[in-house]
Write a structure and sequence with these properties.
By secondary structure, this protein is an alpha+beta fold. The protein is 54% helix and 9% strand.
Amino acid sequence: MSSEETYKADTNKYMVHERGRMPYDSRLTEETRVPDDYVPKKDKIQFVEIYDMPNNTGLSTYELDRLDHEWQKQWFRVNGDLNMRIKKRKGDGSNDNTILYQIQKYRDDLGDFHRNDETYKTAHEEFKRKNKEENELFHKRNNIRKALEKNTLRSISSTDANQLGWIIENDPKYTVHTSSKYNTKFVYPNEYRTKWTGEKVVLNDNPIWLGETIIDEKNSKIGGKKCKSRRLKHTKKRSKARKAIKIKNTKKRSQSRKTNKIKNTKKNYKTKKSRR
C-alpha cells in the first residue's frame, strides 16, 4: 500500500468531532498520536429515502420532487434497488462493505445530479423564486390582516387585492364594486378568523377603496368622512349632555337658595316675635 493510500485509510483515526464545529482531520492542525489498537466506528447501514411521484402540481416543490423520483427510479433500474438489497441480502454477495459502497455511490450520484443537471438546476431556481413570492405574500397578508383588525387600512392596490384573493371571478361579493356616490372603485376584504369552535367569521366587512395600498398607523380608527362625522356626533352628544347637567345643577342651586332664604326669613321672624 502506497503512502497516499495509507494516509487515506488512516483518516478515520485522526477525525475530531467537537460540538459546534465541523469534523476535521487533526493531522492538518497539530501532531497527534493514535493508539495502535484504535478501531474506527463502522458506518451504519441505513435505508435510502424513497422519492414518491408527487400529485399536487400546486406545490412549489412539485418539479423538484418529480425529477428526484424519475432519477431514483432510473438509478434503481440500472444499479438495483438498494433498500431491497439491504432488507433481503440473498445470494448476491451483499455483505456490509458491498452495501456501504453502493450506498455511498448512490449518494455521490444523487449529489452530482443535483449539482450538474441543467433541468434540476432550472427547477431549483424556480422553486427559490416561488418560495420567495410565497414568503412575501405571507408577510403581506399578515400586515394587512393586522391593519384590518385595527381599521388602519385606507386603500389597497388591485395587484394586492388579486394576490390576496379579494377579487374572484363571477363572485357577487368579492369583485370590484363602484361607489355611486363617489364614483370610486372598492372591494370587500376576503379575510376570516377562526373561532375556538372552528367557525369562520369575517375579519372585517367594511369596503376598502381600490388604488394604492395605504396603511395609516397613526390613526387606529376609521378615517375619512366617516371618522369626521362620528367625531362631530360624539362632540354634539357630549356638549348636549354637559349643557343638560349644567342646567340641572343650576336649577338645583337656585331651588336650594330659595329654600334656605325662606327658612332664614321664618327663623328671623320668630326671633323678633319672641323678643317682643
